């Protein structure tokens, strides 16, 4: 590879294999949050960590090609709006945060009404927000040396 | 078994000591993280039941036994959100520290005061 | 017993993190404290919190190292002031007094009160359908808390981005001129 940005070839090869597995693990943690340990918060942190790993290993241009800053900002707001929208739509049935969907059979994936949808919203919000904050900490830095 | 509570409070006190005495901004951020860990750990310690199991039901588990054995789930739910808030606060503090470093060229609080005049 | 050993390890790690001269080793010692907290959570019957703590710990370590390692000043010079030590002494006295009162009041280790949460544990699966009682609490019974927490996280991230961006400040300065 002629690409000089980022770390060495060994790190890049390992990250190329493992980043998708980390993304898959984060998605599993988010989706099974109502059945097993996990949920929106840890899953979102793991999803954000996968992109931060890409950004550290390949340099920020490659990471921006996968997920640009504007896309991260849009995803962040979209997650917050999904969560707030679910909470507000409880008003149609009476009260704020009403669990209005069908509860389903226990111990199956699509159960527990609004809880999986809220988990997805929170996961998007936390992951995209952390990635955006990391980009802000590293890329937007104002470097004024020599004074 | 009060010793565990006392040790957790010692950890909290170390965090407070670091925030008050240390002059380096990075050390202050680290002390804040330690304070955060101590408070979270204290919540979980209060909710622990002896020989308890995690508050997650498994298929085919007896409900009466689960209710009798499980640890307190309410502190865990509060701490789960508190940990992620701690990460957000750490990010915000690091951002402020980097901004101050760019302005003054140092992490030392005392030198910043002198430079400002 | 193992918990006490872990807690002593964490106290030693935090003292090292505060007293060492090198900033990089201070950050790494703080990471060791976080990993100890994660193992404590796992032993106390909280796998949810352990997963979250591990991920958050890794991320905050990366962020702290990334923020400090490129600075040229990694060694710090120790200097103490008498005022800070006096303040910390007064605070410690008050803290020891109040924590003694608190230790008399709180339930002993291993016997939680569980006044509200016994209701959650008994009716959680039937009322919400989620077998993970913690998910049922944070997203159904106490959804307001989670909404406020999401707001705090949003504000913190937005504040960090606003503090560190370059474009807005330049435009504002040009307008002033």
TrEMBL record, chain A:
It is a multi-pass membrane protein. One of its GO terms (cellular component) is plasma membrane. The chain crosses the membrane at residues 14-35, 41-59, 80-101, 107-140. It comes from the Bacteria. It holds the Pfam family MnhB. Residues 10-130 form the Na+/H+ antiporter MnhB subunit-related protein domain. Keywords: Cell membrane, Membrane, Transmembrane, Transmembrane helix. Signal peptide: none annotated. It is found in: Cell membrane. The keyword Membrane applies. Belongs to the CPA3 antiporters (TC 2.A.63) subunit B family. This is Cation:proton antiporter.
UniProtKB/TrEMBL annotation, chain C:
The keyword Oxidoreductase does not apply. One of its GO terms (cellular component) is plasma membrane. Keywords: Cell membrane, Membrane, Transmembrane, Transmembrane helix, Transport. The chain crosses the membrane at residues 27-46, 82-104, 147-164. Signal peptide: none annotated. Residues 87-166 form the MrpA C-terminal/MbhE domain. It is a multi-pass membrane protein. Residues 8-66 form the MrpA C-terminal/MbhD domain. Its main location: membrane. It comes from the Bacteria. It is found in: Cell membrane. Gene3D superfamilies: NADH-ubiquinone/plastoquinone oxidoreductase chain 6, subunit NuoJ. This is Uncharacterized protein.
């Amino acid at each position: 590879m002629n690409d000089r940005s980022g770390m060495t070839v060994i790190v890049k090869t390992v990250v190329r294999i493992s980043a998708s597995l980390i993304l898959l693990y984060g998605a599993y943690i988010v989706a099974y949050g109502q059945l097993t340990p996990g949920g929106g918060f840890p899953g979102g942190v793991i999803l954000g960590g996968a992109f931060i790993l890409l950004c550290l290993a390949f340099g920020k241009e490659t990471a921006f090609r996968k997920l640009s800053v504007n896309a991260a900002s849009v995803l962040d707001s979209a997650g917050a709006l999904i969560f707030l929208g679910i909470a507000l739509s409880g008003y149609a049935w009476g009260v704020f945060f009403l669990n209005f969907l069908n509860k389903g059979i226990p111990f199956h994936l699509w159960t527990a009404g609004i809880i999986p949808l809220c988990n997805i919203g929170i996961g998007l919000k936390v992951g995209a927000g952390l990635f955006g904050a990391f980009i802000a900490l590293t890329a937007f830095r104002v470097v004024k040396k020599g004074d | 078994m009060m010793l565990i509570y006392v040790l957790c409070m010692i950890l909290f006190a170390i965090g407070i000591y670091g925030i008050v005495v240390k002059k380096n901004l990075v050390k202050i951020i680290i002390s804040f993280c330690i304070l955060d860990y101590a408070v979270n750990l204290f919540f979980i310690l209060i909710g622990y039941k002896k020989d308890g199991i995690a508050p997650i039901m498994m298929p085919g588990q007896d409900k009466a036994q689960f209710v009798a054995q499980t640890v307190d789930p309410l502190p865990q739910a509060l701490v789960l959100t508190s940990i992620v808030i701690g990460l957000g606060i750490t990010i915000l503090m690091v951002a402020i520290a980097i901004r101050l470093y760019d302005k003054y060229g140092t992490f030392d609080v005392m030198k910043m005061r002198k430079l400002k005049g | 017993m193992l918990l006490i050993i872990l807690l002593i390890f964490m106290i030693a790690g935090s003292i090292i993190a505060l007293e060492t001269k090198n900033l990089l080793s201070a950050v790494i010692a703080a990471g060791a404290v976080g990993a100890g907290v994660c193992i404590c959570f796992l032993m106390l019957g909280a796998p949810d919190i352990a997963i979250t703590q591990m991920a958050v710990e890794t991320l905050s370590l990366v962020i702290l190292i990334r923020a400090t390692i490129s600075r040229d000043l990694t060694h710090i010079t120790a200097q103490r002031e008498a005022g800070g030590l006096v303040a910390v002494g007064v605070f410690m006295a008050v803290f020891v007094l109040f924590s003694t009162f608190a230790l008399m009041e709180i339930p002993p280790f291993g016997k939680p009160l569980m006044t509200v949460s016994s209701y959650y544990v008994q009716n959680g699966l039937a009322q919400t359908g989620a077998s993970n009682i913690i998910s049922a609490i944070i997203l159904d019974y106490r959804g307001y808390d989670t909404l406020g927490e999401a707001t705090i996280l949003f504000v913190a991230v937005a504040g960090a981005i606003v503090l560190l961006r370059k474009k807005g400040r330049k435009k504002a300065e040009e307008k002033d001129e």
